[in-house]
């Protein structure tokens, strides 16, 4: 089968033939239809410091996908051939304290699809049935392909109550944009999104945020004044991993404000902890999705007409992966889809 592979320990990806994956008694074989390009895939392609430490070559990359079940193991009873499915890309041990307590998203032995084992940028992918999400409610292929990052957005956005709250989102990348859509849908009063890319801020406006703020030109405090906010933001969603963004967020929170932080910084940076303490700010780290509570929330949000279409800005046949990755790496658009049925 064709697959997009990190063949060698150097920059680049290679479209090549690899053996079709074999499944065990508890596994499912899936014909991949579409995939989404993630920031993780960009890191692996560029072979940066994180990738050099985390990846062992050769490796089929990719973890955002939708496909159709073509084979099930003998012990699989609740998934059928022909089902349209996506996959939870964090494979957990099932035996640690958190897994046994039902907190699988906190498993310390998590293995990432397309990072620690062969992934979904291929014609077929195999997964344990316990990691397969069957789309019981109709959902378009493009949206189903990005359930993994959509889950990150939902997990982060719904970390704290949003009804009637003023929400600040730093970072208008694809996950930040999806989080903005979720916050609006969940009843936030104002949703402010910051970035330095005018193209991405325009996508935020299409989603319907209260204010899309170019922080290279105006401050978050300016945005507060424009909206008539007197005491700061109630909820912050940090999606960029930028030290400046995190410090600015803390400086613009109301007393008792709550911050969910999904953006992953490249290195340590100082934080005004005195402000955090004296303003009684809560900061919660978020990684991945709650399995599978977040997935239920995603499906219900879409069932109730949450519109993610503006977030998807490009679709390419998988053979045009170089152009697709260049688009994704430009920092100007939203989610980029690879079509494996084209």
TrEMBL record:
- Catalytic function, reaction form: 2-deoxy-scyllo-inosamine + NAD(+) = 3-amino-2,3-dideoxy-scyllo-inosose + NADH + H(+); 2-deoxy-scyllo-inosamine + NADP(+) = 3-amino-2,3-dideoxy-scyllo-inosose + NADPH + H(+); L-threonine + NAD(+) = (2S)-2-amino-3-oxobutanoate + NADH + H(+)
Record's SUPFAM superfamilies?
GroES-like, NAD(P)-binding Rossmann-fold domains
A Pfam match = ADH_zinc_N
Q: Write the record's keywords in alphabetical order, separated by commas.
A: Cytoplasm, Metal-binding, NAD, Oxidoreductase, Zinc
Q: Which GO terms describe its cellular component?
A: cytoplasm
Its annotated pathway reads: Metabolic intermediate biosynthesis; 2-deoxystreptamine biosynthesis; 2-deoxystreptamine from D-glucose 6-phosphate: step 3/4; Amino-acid degradation; L-threonine degradation via oxydo-reductase pathway; glycine from L-threonine: step 1/2
Q: Does the keyword Cytoplasm apply?
A: yes
What sort of enzyme, by top EC class, is this?
A: oxidoreductase
User: According to the record, how does the cofactor bind?
Assistant: Binds 2 Zn(2+) ions per subunit.
Q: Where does Zn(2+) 1 bind?
A: 38, 63-64
The UniProt entry, under PROSITE patterns, shows: ADH_ZINC
Binding residues for Zn(2+) 2: 93, 96, 99, 107
Q: Where is this site: Important for catalytic activity for the proton relay mechanism but does not participate directly in the coordination of zinc atom?
A: 148
Where found, per UniProt? Answer: Cytoplasm
**At which positions is NAD(+) bound?**
175, 195, 200, 262-264, 286-287
User: Which positions fall inside the Enoyl reductase (ER) domain?
Assistant: 12-338
**Active-site feature positions:** 40 (charge relay system), 43 (charge relay system)
GO BP terms:
L-threonine catabolic process to glycine
Query: GO molecular function of the protein, one example?
Result: L-threonine 3-dehydrogenase activity
Q: What is its EC number?
A: 1.1.1.103
Q: NCBIfam families, alphabetically?
A: PRK05396.1 (NF003808)
> What family, per the record?
Belongs to the zinc-containing alcohol dehydrogenase family. DOIA dehydrogenase subfamily.
What this chain does, per the entry, is described as:
Catalyzes the NAD(+)-dependent oxidation of L-threonine to 2-amino-3-ketobutyrate. Catalyzes the oxidation of 2-deoxy-scyllo-inosamine (DOIA) with NAD(+) or NADP(+), forming 3-amino-2,3-dideoxy-scyllo-inosose (amino-DOI).
Which HAMAP family does this UniProt record tie to the protein? Thr_dehydrog
Write the protein's name: L-threonine 3-dehydrogenase
